[in-house]
Amino acid sequence: MEVSEQMRVTPIDDHAEALPGHVRDAVEETFARHASRCRGGMQFSVYREGEPVLRLFAGVAGRSGDASARPWGPHTLAVIFSGTKGLVATIAAKAVGEGLLDVDAPVSRYWPEFAVAGKESVTVAQVLSHTVGLPYLDPDPSLDADGRPLEGEEQWVFLDSRAMAAILAGQRPLWEPGTKVAYHGVTYGYLMSEIILRATGRSVAEWLREDLAEPHGLDLHLGLPAEDEERVAPIFQTAGYTVAPHVTDPRRRTIIDRMYASLLSPTLPMNSREFHASELAAGGGIGTADSIAKLYSLLVTPGRLGGGIVAPEALEAALQTRSAGLDCLTDRPLQFGLGYELADQLDSYGPVDRAFGHSGAGGSIHGAWPDQGLGFSFLTNEMLTDDVDRRAKDLLAALAGVSAP
Description:
Layout: E1 8-10, H1 21-35, E2 41-48, E3 51-59, E4 78-79, H2 83-97, H3 124-128, H4 161-169, H5 187-200, H6 204-216, E5 220-221, E6 236-237, H7 250-260, H8 273-277, E7 286-287, H9 289-299, H10 312-318, E8 323-326, E9 333-336, E10 341-342, E11 356-359, E12 365-369, E13 374-380, E14 382-383, H11 391-399
Parallel strand pairs: 6-14
Antiparallel strand pairs: 1-3, 2-3, 2-13, 4-7, 5-7, 8-9, 10-11, 11-12, 12-13
Helix pairs in contact: 1-11, 2-5, 2-10, 4-5
């Protein structure tokens, strides 16, 4: 198939036996087909035991047609949006394994101010599994009276995780915690950042840098150093981009729009230095597809669950279903462990029996297949609405050796 001259395919032979030849061919053909329509850049990386078995990248770290845009390469960084939540889930599991965090304990054990307004018995596990009932801030200091993002310096208040957590601590949930599941797109990060800081004495960014990135050579960041700024691919949204486009109920639509108003504003705050320098644990992670795939592959090293990063029993516990059902706001089927998304009826993580990881806004997806010992990451700067986006779904189907529906 003929594709853009910007397409690059990097053959890797170190662990070629991990992928049969016909599977590699199918993945490359699928990637080439989507690359031919790519208006930005994209990469798909697959790792086993911390080593690459397949790396494909195409397009530019910008928009096609932009003369100044650089070719997308293995060292291109991009905002991974909610893929960050998978990193937080890994950190939480690591803290559990080290005896620093008890997920079945009430949040108030670590954060006493949280035990008000009907949240006295809320557990850390309920926060990790998106059942706590705090999907948005009320009041939200980053929005005006009509729910629109503020301008100027005021718009960046949503990046102050501790200030936002303080608001959530006093807030009453929309439902009785534990009785409903709904994806906490932004507030999850504020809540878990505060819990991890108070329980362990270290921030999520410190855990990521000191326990994951540096020891394992991962190009992953919360709070990107200024010297790496030029490597970040600017994000762009396709025309009509929105979250949960199928939701038309006025009340639920208002809640969804409010949840994402600051993070996914049309002003594209994710392309700012302020955003990149922040430590937004719900969606501010920045990294390469290679590093994310490598991390997940280490977690599922055959015969060594956790890969020496997370205690095996803690990771196994994190992969048990803690919440499942239709999202009460978006009607999307959900299945969560302790912070990780798990295999669901939509085959979001491919047509396999066991999988975990986390997706990100606009089409990126990152995770692992424990039974196959594979970690993977699809990363892009071209945000597509999920009802028209087949990129990751087709790639994961090809990787599993089946045809995507």
